[in-house]
Amino acid sequence: MSDPEVTDALAREHGLSEHEIALIGEILGRRPTFPELGIFSVMWSEHCSYKSSKRYLKTLPTAGACVVQGPGENAGVVDVGEGRVAVFKIESHNHPSYVEPHGGAATGVGGILRDIFTMGARPLASLDSLRFGSLEDPHQRFLVRGVVAGIADYGNAFGCATVGGEVTFHPRYSRNILVNAMNVGIARADQIFLASASGPGNPVLYVGSKTGRDGIHGASLLASAEFDEETDAKRPTVQLGDPFTEKLLLEACLEAMATGAIVGIQDMGAAGLTCSSFEMASRSGTGIEMDLDRVPQRETGMTAYELLLSESQERMLLVAEAGREGEILDVFAKWDLDAAIVGRVTDDGKMRVRWHGRVVVDIPVDPIAANAPVYERPIAEPAGRAALRELDLAKLPAERDPSGALLQLLASPNLCSREWVYRQYDQLVQSSTVLRPGGDAAVVRIPETERGLALTTDCNPRWCALDPYAGAQHAVAEAARNAAVTGARPLAVTNCLNFGSPERPECMWEFAEATRGMGDACRALGLPIVSGNVSFYNETSGEGAIPPTPTIGLVGLLEDVRHAVPASFRAPGDDVVFLGETREELGGSEYLAVRHGLERGAPPALDLAAELRLQKLLAAAAARGLLRSAHDCSDGGAAVALAECAIRSGIGLDAALPAAGPRPDVALFAESCARAVASCAPERTAELLGLAGEHGVPAARIGRTGGERIRIQPRVDVALAEAHDLWSRTLPEALG
Amino acid sequence: MSARVGVLMFPGSLDDRDLGRSFGLLGADVRMVWHKDTRLPELDGIAAPGGFSYGDYLRAGAMARFSPVMRAVLDFAASGRPVLGVCNGFQILCEAGLLPGALVRNRDLKFVCQDVRIVVEDPGQLRAELPPGRDLVLPVKHGEGAYMPDPDHKPRVAFRYVGTNPNGSTDDIAGVANEAGNVVGLMPHPEYAVDPLLGSTDGAPLLRSFMAACLAARTRR
User: B106: nearest CA in chain A?
Assistant: First the structure.
């Protein structure tokens, strides 16, 4: 098969703009070959080049005392003490999961796992932030089942515990679901591997699965354009995952790294062999010469174009020390994996690729990788957004049945039990899971130490839709609070920025506002952003974009993991303590959406200084062993938080929430920031309240645990068994 | 004197390190045994761990039984020394014919990870700390854990689920022993219930019982 002639029309079909086509001519001084055109198209795709987001990402804080490696590598790295580092990142796999939910979600998990072990870390825990359309919609149920099964099949068979995440439903995700996968691994601080191709003359090795025709243009076309009627035809662009091979690849890579013969290593994810080789060479200021005939191939007759762009999974590119390649080949042979020397590092800054004895690619590395085009897209605040933030509480009907409202919230798709999801995940492998899913943050022990990590993902898209600046700030604050209630000190952040088309000024405005909010909140809370991913084009033609969804993944540190505090009550007879202050605000709340069918009003006011005081109090109280349980008050407000503590423990309560204005629904269901509910042994309550005073956090004993009922003043009194039943049934009944 | 326990490592084994670690915490002398090995080191007992050996794309345990090491494991079991299979290890021992019956897809066709309660019935050589009637809370995590007995053979039931049957197993069977009592397999994971930090510690008496059987076997020889 001969390559087609490269014309401007063909270049446009590859998603390149007129400007970019002209730029290619300038760089090469000639027309590109067909394989070269493929390379430009993937390297300059939105997904690989960050061309619309780069200028905003540069404004985010990335430095901090704990930071060992910030953005730019396969994953971020932070120091967690005792000679260990945590390596973590979150990444989207949205479009593939919509087109083929099981395979899309599975390879999303596989991709993020490789990002972690490429750096020399053993993946320890996964989290998945999932957004679907309405649970009422049968197609969404199909998508939920497929995505959850895909995550389970890959993660469980690979052997990494899935310990947390989120699942929420909103009609605006119905034609573009979100699957954001996060992984955290642990490495020794002195054994981190980077994606460098240094040392001209060093051999370049290809290891792992053979290359097939799957996933060609998965990242560049599927992830870098919006959906339309042709989307189903893109199913072949979804890659196929094989967790068994990935598990072998993990063990073989870690063993090969231990030989000391590896100079640099990079996984082949988006844009496969092309992206990995360009990025490695670009980071080291070198070039690479490759012979495609040596690449292990799954099918016959593959062209250079296909070999360069395939996104077959479970593959790595690595550079070895010259003369020591045999040691690496031996390790891969032991694990029965393919490994081949496919090229060598050069010093001329060029990528030269041979195929069937001919040079088919001969282009400079840097103008394509490091100096890809960057755009300043127009931005414009969408009309009517400010009006949506108006809410007159005086016009909202009074809540006549607070007990009924609580039960309705507990049974609602966004607040009900997530057990249907996480019981399909292996939560235990590697013997590290101290706090399992279902609480605020999961807590895992750092192997061979007494330390622990608190892990969480958070974002409230409804708030981000009403006010992306405030919503992104809240996402950071809530993630930090979720880690803090376990007793951990929030350490660092990874982000997954899911937005609509950057070519639409309203979406770009949302992106600009959200990144500004995220940066401000991270600076105020002292949280560096060490890794992340941007996912644009989350929309389907004619149906508008998803709500802006800047998902935050956060890692917190517990110096003594034995002090980890669970979310649910521990024993009857404990005091219930309320921390923080409820304001008279219901804007954007679950209560307003579920009970009144309204999605409007300004998100709650955010007081980052109060958040910081609460975080410090929680860490200090946990370290002193004062907290039997602690749970963040967020979606659904304080009443839902207290009910969750009771339902999950099987221990009732009798408590009175502090009033916040005349409306009972505000005290019960407002989602004010910087609040938590805790339980403590009665003889320690005075100490806890004193400690709260020292930290400047309002605190009050509001009741006691015990009994078979959930009694919360004002005017909530429901049987624990009934609440448990309603809360547990929603997902199993909808999903089977 | 500590029990010398060999933990098998197949490609795709996932709980091998955890099983070895838990035996180690309880004082066993643990040796990891690679699937390509045809000769075993000096051992008093062998444990086959959980995971997805060879990816389990065909049928759980169906490939692992052909691993080079399995010939030696069959001989070891025939000598009457203790062999324990946990989860995928149980599936492998059934596929290899060391235990009767088979394990099939869970009733609801979904993987399940949760704590379950089991009761001890007739645990063969694992009787040291497991009197009949003793309750244990242990986690399960599997997709193919529903036990199906051979139609013409009533198995020797080592453990049964109490309350919740997580996978639709016949007669709530959670684990079985062979006729000689030296080979025992179960779906729940004792190795994830040893360290109090991680929850239940009910796995410790089960693993210690296996270690006691190992020492008894060494004394017999």
Answer: A424
For residue A651, is pLDDT > 60?
yes
Tell me the count of A-B CB pairs closer than 8 A.
79
Looking at A93, A102, A631, A724, which residue is catalytic?
A93
- Average of pLDDT values for A608-612? 98
Residues of A in contact with B164 (CB under 8 A): none
Confidence of residue A382 (pLDDT cuts 50, 70, 90): very high
DSSP E strands in A146-261: the ranges are 161-169, 178-188, 203-208
Asked whether A327 and A261 are in contact (CB, 8 A), the reply is yes
Question: Each residue of A146-200: pLDDT tens digit?
Answer: 999 999 999 999 999 999 999 999 999 999 999 999 999 999 999 999 999 999 9
A166 contacts A129 by C-beta, under 8 angstroms: yes
Tell me which chain B residues have a C-beta less than 8 angstroms from the C-beta of A426.
14, 111, 113, 141
What domains are there in chain A, each with its CATH number? 14-52+194-364 (3.90.650.10), 75-192+431-563 (3.30.1330.10), 565-735 (3.90.650.10)
The domain ranges of chain B are 4-220
B214 belongs to the catalytic site? no
> How far apart are alpha carbons A475 and A458 in whole angstroms?
6
Model confidence at A500, pLDDT cuts 50, 70, 90, reads very high
CB contact under 8 A, A243 and B139: no
- pTM (2 d.p.): 0.96
Asked if A314 has any chain B CB less than 8 Å from its own CB, the reply is: no
- Helices A402-411, A720-735: crossing angle, 10 deg rounding: 30
Q: Environment class of residue B150 by beta-carbon count within 10 Å: exposed (0-12), middle (13-18) or buried (19+)?
A: exposed
A648 and chain B in contact, CB less than 8 A: no
B189 is catalytic: yes
Q: Per-residue pLDDT tens for B71-80?
A: 999 999 999 9
Question: A426 vs B113: CB contact, 8 Å cut-off?
Answer: yes
| pLDDT at res. A232 | 55
Query: Touching check for A433 and chain B: CB below 8 Å?
Result: yes
Residue contact B55–A242, C-beta within 8 A: yes
pLDDT reading at A96 higher than 80: yes
What is the CATH class of B4-220?
A: alpha beta
Q: Which residue has the tokens 């395939």?
A: A310
